[in-house]
């Protein structure tokens, strides 16, 4: 699991949003356990998301969940259904007025703030509404 997380964050540093795809059934997952959640196959390969998706739900975080995030609130946090089929949780970018459930979004990366831990100094994946 740690290794999977490292692969994911290394991807973010390269501005890639990495997903795991099952070699057996093609199921795509995010931060997957060591086996496919659909067919329990153990052979998983890293793929890079194309970056398109839609908002399944979102919330606006007004109270920092940890001290390191105090300077960042309020921010949007969404569940995004990627075109590859995986549902991922990520920050929302852009104007809050443009966020809506079902709205198309596109992957972007934002500089992580002063947050401690795995985010610090890195690139944080976020999704911004598509124009039009
Ligand atoms: Zn599978």
Task: Please give a handful of descriptors for the protein shown.
mainly beta, OB fold (Dihydrolipoamide Acetyltransferase, E2P), five-stranded mixed beta barrel, three-stranded antiparallel beta sheet
Tell me what you see in this structure.
9% of the residues lie in helices and 39% in strands. By secondary structure, the protein is mainly beta. The chain has a single domain, classed as OB fold (Dihydrolipoamide Acetyltransferase, E2P) (Beta Barrel). Strands 4-5-6-8-7 form a five-stranded mixed β-barrel. A hairpin with a 5-residue loop joins β1 and β2 (28-29). It starts with a helix and ends with a strand. The mean pLDDT is 88. Zinc ion binds at residues 22, 24-25, 27, 36, 38-39, 41.
Helices and strands in order:
Blueprint (H helix, E strand, L loop, with lengths): L1 H12 L4 E5 L5 E2 L14 E5 L3 E10 L13 E8 L4 E6 L11 E8 L11 E7 L3
Parallel strand pairs: 6-8
Antiparallel strand pairs: 1-2, 1-3, 4-5, 4-7, 5-6, 7-8
Zinc ion binds next to loops.
CATH class descriptor name: Mainly Beta
Question: How does CATH name the architecture?
Answer: Beta Barrel
Oligomer: single chain
Mean pLDDT: 88
The separation of the N and C termini measures 39 Å
For the sheet with most strands, the description reads: 5 strands, mixed, barrel
Radius of gyration, whole Å: 15 Å
- Helical content (DSSP H or I, runs of 4+): under 10%
Silhouette: globular
How many helices? The count is 1
Percentage of residues in strands: 35-45%
Structural class: mainly beta
Order of helices and strands: HEEEEEEEE
CATH topology descriptor? OB fold (Dihydrolipoamide Acetyltransferase, E2P)
Low-confidence stretches at least 5 residues in length (pLDDT < 50)? none
Number of domains: 1
């Amino acid at each position: 699991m740690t290794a999977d997380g490292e692969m994911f964050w290394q991807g973010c540093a390269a501005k890639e949003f990495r997903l795991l795809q099952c070699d057996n059934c093609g199921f795509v997952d995010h931060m997957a356990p060591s086996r496919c959640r659909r067919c329990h196959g153990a052979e998983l390969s890293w793929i890079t998301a194309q970056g398109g998706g839609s908002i399944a739900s979102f919330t606006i975080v007004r109270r920092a969940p940890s001290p390191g995030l105090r300077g960042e609130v309020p921010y949007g946090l969404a569940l995004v259904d990627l075109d590859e089929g995986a549902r991922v949780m990520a920050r929302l970018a852009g104007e809050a007025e443009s966020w809506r459930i079902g709205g198309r979004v596109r992957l972007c990366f934002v500089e992580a703030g002063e947050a401690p831990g795995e985010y610090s100094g890195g690139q944080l994946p976020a999704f911004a509404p598509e124009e039009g």
